[in-house]
Design a protein that fits this description.
The chain is mainly α. Among the domains are: 81 residues, Serine Threonine Protein Phosphatase 5, Tetratricopeptide repeat (Alpha Horseshoe), CATH 1.25.40; 119 residues, no CATH class; 55 residues, no CATH class; 106 residues, Serine Threonine Protein Phosphatase 5, Tetratricopeptide repeat (Alpha Horseshoe). Helix content is 73%, strand content 0%.
Amino acid sequence: MQFRPALFFREQFQLTFKAALLVLSTLPTLAQADGAGAYLAARHGEIENDFAKAAEFANTALIGNPDDLPLMESAVMAQISLGQIDRALAVAKLLVSRDAGNQIANLAIATSLVRNQNYTQLYELTKNGAAIGPLVDGLLAGWAQFGAGRMTEALSLFDAVAAEPGLSSFGLYHKALALMLAGDFEAADAILSQQGTRLPATRRGVMAQAQVLSQLERNDEAIALIDGVFGRELDPGLALMRAQLAAGDTLQVTAVRSARDGMAEVFFSVARALELEADANYTLLYARVSQALRPDLVEATLLAAALLDQLEQFDLATAAYDSIPESDPAFQAAELGRASTLRRAGKQDTAIEVLTRLSESHPEFSAVHIALGDIMRGEEDYPAAIAAYTRSVELIGTPAAGDWATYFARGIAYERNGDWPDAEADFRLALTLQPDQPRVLNYLGYSYVEKQQNLDEALAMIVRAVEQRPGDGFITDSLGWVLYRLGRYEDAVLQMERAVELMPVDPILNDHLGDVYWAVGREREARFQWRRAMSFDPEEVDASRIRRKLDIGLDAVLAAEGAAPLDGN
């Protein structure tokens, strides 16, 4: 069976986390002991991902429960998650003295050994693959030997990792970095040139190979590599590198500058592998260790910030984004991330201020204007949203297929602002760029339904959207609604019932199902659905109309609104 590193780490961490959960069964005993309040507070902090609270109270609780291994592990995890690895070390050493194979404790200890350049002890810790896990231990052992000046042994250890099923790309990549650091650029290039085949073409891998090619006086090949992988839409860091290459400069070797950098790269590599498969809590540990070993590895900082945002630790995420200086090419990405975090934290005004300043200091970046447009649209300031999207469109020039989303977003802002002709034009252009895009098909089709225009075309659009997204309740609702508008009530019932199955607590979908039931004469069921819709807290304008339908029925409401009566009524 092929070894999957992300799955392996997730399973290993879940085992230790489950061990922590078993402590809950001892609560009646702990409640009688000193520190029970601290224990419960630590546990609550852990559940809420409040790492500061978890760390503080776990350490306090350990005073009264010094033999509680899961509590020790919780304390270490919380401190690492805060980026305070030095503070985790004392408890980690105590935990390892009781449980030598504890991965979390060994993670903190290994980090401390790297920082102190204690490569011999690090090698002894990791050489058997039982400290943190086979992948991490194997790579750390290789870099420990490199740091100790034993290049042959280091390369042999990287080869051993590469020979493991599923781990080939990790071993090869770190072998290439070691060769690069040792100045053997030809050998490093021979490995890195396999990106896209044996190695994934990652941003860091491509940048490393570009530095190697530049050192070999092959700048043209480095430019072709960057263009071939990323095209011409480059982030600021890649754009700067490409400009230096085009100017004939020789790129400095910065992918790794020391064994410690190599080990930071190990933890970042694992974090990226965990990112899509493991819980954010586990991935964060590796991102934080990578940050601790190499503070200028901005990719690790950005990853840690994004994970903290995902865990709703908004203050910690904001602090991580803030740590990237304005002089860094990643500053724009950091500010975009900070604005997103502030927005999720409910600090809309501050987020708008961040994006406004960024749009003024970096007016050439389309993504900044799109982000500003998105937040202004969310605030229902549609003129401001339109202005921001329009600045982005002006930067686009000749639109490409990937630009459909910008026109779609501006079309929504136009439509909400009451400017239907411009909205329709943007929706049509978005479909020209991406003809089968289900979100655009659904939005334009539904808009036609609401305006009772082009109903046959609207039906065709929404059918195409449903074919692509059969599990999307909103799109299925649109199909039911257009059938209702066309007077095909029995067909509409089937689609509306399906939509409510997909999204049972949405007030609008339940309201629509009530209307369709009324149209086929199932009035008792219609009233039930309207009452159900009211229980899901609809917007007041919708709630008012639902109350009137409950009072006087749909036919009377339509008549009062001057709308056409239902067919057959």
